[in-house]
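Chapter review: from sequence to fold.
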Amino acid sequence: MGEDSKSTRAAAHRRRGRGSGGRRRKPARHKGRRIAAWTAAGLVLVGLGGAGFLYFKFNGNLNSVDINAALGKNRPQNIDNGSQDILVLGSDSRAGANSKYGRDEGSSRSDTAMIVHIYAGHKKASIVSIPRDMIVPRPACRTPEGRTAPAVQHGQFNEAYSIGGAACAVATVEKMTNIRMDHYMEVDFAGFQKLIDKLGGVQVTTTKPIHDKFSHLDLDAGTHRLDGEQSLGLVRTRHGVGDGSDLGRIKLQQAFIKALLDQVKHIGLFTSPTKLYGIADTATKTLTTDKELGSLDKLASFANGLKGIGSGDMHMVTLPVGDDPLDTNRVIPLPEQSTLLWDALRNDKPIPDAAVKDGAGAKTGADDVVK
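The token string follows.
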């Protein structure tokens, strides 16, 4: 056979080895890549199904309160300047187990109260702690039984929550500050303990021993990694430091919050799906929010907007108070200083030093006990 015939057969053989359109058949490794791609797509679909299950699970954990419906239109003006104000309460309302960590008296009290002001741009925040034993005017509030508790001019701050729950607490704060609260968050203390354990504890340094039989806290001076029970004891202790006042306890709470924020930044949640699941499950069971934050997507969006704020970006103060002339065991807001503070936040300005320097909580025996 001549050379021309051999060339013709070789060309035909090459054509039979090609796919449609004259393209070369892909090597086996390309087929392997296609299989891997479809496998990955399948895993993504399974993952999305799992994410949907987790969404409904975590979403179902959340409790919410319709503050707007409860309070109606009789509220301060909603100023749209890019800032946000959130009332945050720490309460013992969800579980009877809370009582062993130092509940002083009564039930369903708000032991911890803070107004968190997020400045426009969401890069900085001011946090104002409100003494639980402070005496303030309280507006008329609806009780859980459907009755109306009449307004009082001389009521203890944390009784508002006991009488009318979240809505009454918000109404009392708005009456006191003339600032509309954009959101409400309540942290259950029993859940708080579990959350700290899920996080792996929080490291703090105490410059003095803290021994408080009421909150079950027993710490020597030094560096400690506090578990959930110890952390709860720390934020509720009042007898183990300083003069045993609520103003000293507030300083411990403020120091602990900063330590907690620093801890969360360094635990690497996304490298451990198991840890992330446990934290998300516990956190959503621990929170009660206003209705506008009462779903997982809304809460996640809100939290994502605050992720740039670290402990160093927070200015933490105690509402300026002095002794109540009618009861030396209680305190009342200092009128001039309080006006300076609330005016600053209402106008999205930093809190001036003059607003807090003379308050009884500016310096306490618990300052710098926890770092």
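Two observations follow directly from the output. The chain has ten helices and 17 strands. The radius of gyration is 29 Å.
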